[in-house]
Amino acid sequence: MQMTMNMETGVAHRKVHSLVSCKVLNLYSGLGGNRELWESCDVTSVEYDDAIAEVYAAKFPQDEIVVGDALGYVQSHFKEFDFIWASPPCPTHGQYRHNVGVLGKGFAPVIPEMTSLYGLIVFLRTYFAGSWVVEM
Question: What is the pTM of this model?
Answer without folding.
Answer: 0.78
